[in-house]
Amino acid sequence: MVLIGLEIHGYLMVENKKKLFCNCSLEEAEPNTNICPICTGQPGAKPMLPNKEAVEKVLAIALMLGCKVNDRLVFQRKHYDWPDLPKGFQITMSGSYALPVGVDGSFLGVGIQQVHLEEDPARWNPDTGEVDYNRSGYPLVEIVTKPDLKSAEHVHEWLRKLWTLLGYIRAVDRKLGIKCDVNVNIEGHPRVEVKNVNSFSAIVEVVKHEIERQKNAVKKGVVLKQETRAWTGEKTVFMRFKEQAEDYRFIPEPDLPVIKISKQWLQSIKSKLPETPDQKLEKMQRLGVNAVDAQIISSDIILADLWEFLTSKGFPSQRAANFVRHWFLRVVNDEGLYPEDFKGSKLQVFKVLKLFVDKKISDKTAKQLLAKLVKQDFDVETFVKEQSLTVINDEGLVKKYCEQVLEQEKKAVNDYLKGNEKVIHYLKGRVMRLSKGKADQQLVEELLRSMLKALREV
Ligand SMILES: [Zn+2]
């Protein structure tokens, strides 16, 4: 068995657009324009009190991931020498004296060991030697999982859902990307850590590559060692063994107070959050949604939110679940996309389903409209009117189409009268074609049957 754990870093989305320990802006800007003595690590500069909103966002993340939240938070100095860090240490909550924001959570069956807050170092370009301090002091969340992930596919699916959830609660700015340390080992063998993997696709590639590499090594009888490796874009390469690990000389940050988290503060953050996937799953099943649908929908915040919206508009629970899973999700998958890529609003999706349920459009039209909504939001009712997509259920008109077809299709009619009842499907197809696909299919079939019955009795 393979064991995979992730240390994920994401950029916190703070509305006040300020860095963690100073008032510099987080907006995109020319290099080295959003800087001050604090975030450039000038001698004597001390951090300001941490950005309260950043602390709240990390608390929200810890709560959504089902963590126990500590009532005190301690910042520490993590020392290392690198061109991206002029003051010689990074301020973080992980390390020897850790009292992380959250511990012992779980998300979709994967254990969350810790959630904490830290500052981003500057951005150093090793090719030119240039350093951009705009990123220095950007508030980051670090999420450390237990080694509960099982394969590259599992990592991809789980990470995608986690990132969607954190984007949805506006805790993480997904546009700014992800930074990840990936731990992989074959059960019974030491752990290999791959540092600084910077995209979803690279994380998946690293996992595939390491599983393959380690399995081959074991097959050849090589004794694997605990080591740190780097990703080149094509393969992982050796960096150092565990014994050579850096000593970060952690000390509690003397220039920052311990932050106390009151129950009231925590409660007010909790009250603004959506239900967790587990709560949603329990609720969907309680409302009668079958286990498989409930599992699939509750594990993805976009699907869960759409289901919630449809039921709030009066759709019965299971019917709404059917639509979400068999229509919405299928249309999205057919486009090779994910639910979070869907551009249409929930209201327009609802309008499509309502038109279908009210028999104003056919199922085919409904699915075509959903496929169009994948790419852009538009007003469904106006579009249906403009393109005259409404189903024809005017009995008089449909009857005319049927009569015309029965008149033209003498042979088929005779076959039917002789007992070949399957011919009805052919006749129905002719009527649908005549009506340019717009006649109400059920009405067509009923009318054809009663007209053919009348012919038989003649
Ligand atoms: Zn600054």
Number of strands: 16
What portion of the residues fall into strands of 2 or more residues? 15-25%
List each distinct ligand once.
zinc ion
Tally of separate domains = 3
What class would the helix/strand composition place it in? Answer: alpha+beta
Helical amount: 40-55%
Main sheet: strand order: 2-6-7-10-1-11-12-13-14
- Biggest sheet statistics: 9 strands, mixed
Overall mean confidence score, pLDDT? 93
Write down the Rg: 30 Å
- Give start-end ranges of low-pLDDT stretches: none
Helix count equals 15
Q: Distance between termini?
A: 74 Å
> What does the overall shape look like?
elongated
Please provide a brief summary of the model.
This protein has 458 residues and is α+β, with helices and mostly antiparallel strands.
Please explain how this structure is put together.
The longest helix has 20 residues. This protein is α+β, with helices and mostly antiparallel strands and 458 residues long. It has a nine-stranded mixed sheet. A three-stranded antiparallel sheet has the order 5-4-15, with no helix packed on it. Strands 3-16 form a two-stranded antiparallel ribbon. It is 41% helix and 17% strand. The chain has three domains: 267 residues, no CATH class; 113 residues; 63 residues, Arc Repressor Mutant, subunit A (Orthogonal Bundle). The site of zinc ion has 8 residues, from loops.
